[in-house]
């Protein structure tokens, strides 16, 4: 695949943009640059897409930490959530890539950094508060319309692009509508940042995900306009008591209209707390609000079909889907040896063209005396040994450069003790496996 050479990667490290051990040219597509931040599972880098020169942010997540920590489902849900959302004020996930040791989330680059960094320098004017609150509510409304509840909204999770427009990020604690309990229609997982958590979450009796997001938006608006938190105390239990009782006071410079609006947002009773629809009738909110500009964008995440699946439907899997298939998260771990006559399924990633892969499979099958029948799309069926061996091979597009190959088979061991899969077909396919880890400079 096209990409930067090792000496070019080394030049990045030498220039001080990356520690040498992190200098990588990711899959020939992205040139990793400076470190932007660190998280629980990995690091976030500024990067440049080699083909277009466009800046992106890449979060590199350590698979071992995810697996050992039991966060596989958690991370997979975050990816699924971000794929649901397409809105100008929601940070966009472009693609997910993977190597043996890491998962890479390629995201929109927010050049302006965290909103928190700006408000930490001083409170905003009401007009600027309103501008950002309009964008925040537009994004949150879109999330809710897609069945997504953020549950950890705070200035640290609100980024700014190069036009200083808002981008909601970090959906790691988000919930989806499918997680709502059918018996009471509520969510029950306790989560969120203490100073931004809604009182009903503290009550531990279940809560409406949309209502707790509105509460957090109210805290954010207060912080932007006042420059400090409405509920704060060194003693966590004292702070929780203030939140539960709704004890806060607006600074003297707050306009009466904003004070009233904040009281509706920070209503301790979720049943009477203002909704997004009701906000459109509030005098403070409506001022300067462009309904056309901020209409909810209910656009599905677009996945361009690259190949036709065996069932005749267009299919395009992302890297995280494939990672979840593989035991131990090892994408190169092709073909186990459990040959007990049951149906076995093996998957591997390849950089070869589908037609090359199928030709290799067909040649190996014919050499082993198997009958080859073409299937729909990129797939074939293999049969032999009087029906004692049956296999299906299918190919799906993973990225523009990579495909995933799935082999499902049933085999009864021959009297000679030889197995067609282990002895004939598997060795031919091993050469097709993609080795995804980029070379380590100096290694």
Automatic annotation (TrEMBL):
Pfam families: NAF, Pkinase. Residues 30-285 form the Protein kinase domain. Belongs to the protein kinase superfamily. CAMK Ser/Thr protein kinase family. SNF1 subfamily. It comes from Trapa natans. It catalyses: L-threonyl-[protein] + ATP = O-phospho-L-threonyl-[protein] + ADP + H(+); L-seryl-[protein] + ATP = O-phospho-L-seryl-[protein] + ADP + H(+). Residues 312-336 form the NAF domain. Keywords: ATP-binding, Kinase, Manganese, Nucleotide-binding, Serine/threonine-protein kinase, Transferase. ATP binds at residue 63. Signal peptide: none annotated. Its EC number is 2.7.11.1. It comes from the Eukaryota. GO terms for biological process: signal transduction. Its cofactor is Mn(2+). It is an enzyme of class 2 (transferase). This is non-specific serine/threonine protein kinase. InterPro entries: Kinase-like_dom_sf, NAF/FISL_domain, NAF_dom, Prot_kinase_dom, Protein_kinase_ATP_BS, Ser/Thr_kinase_AS.
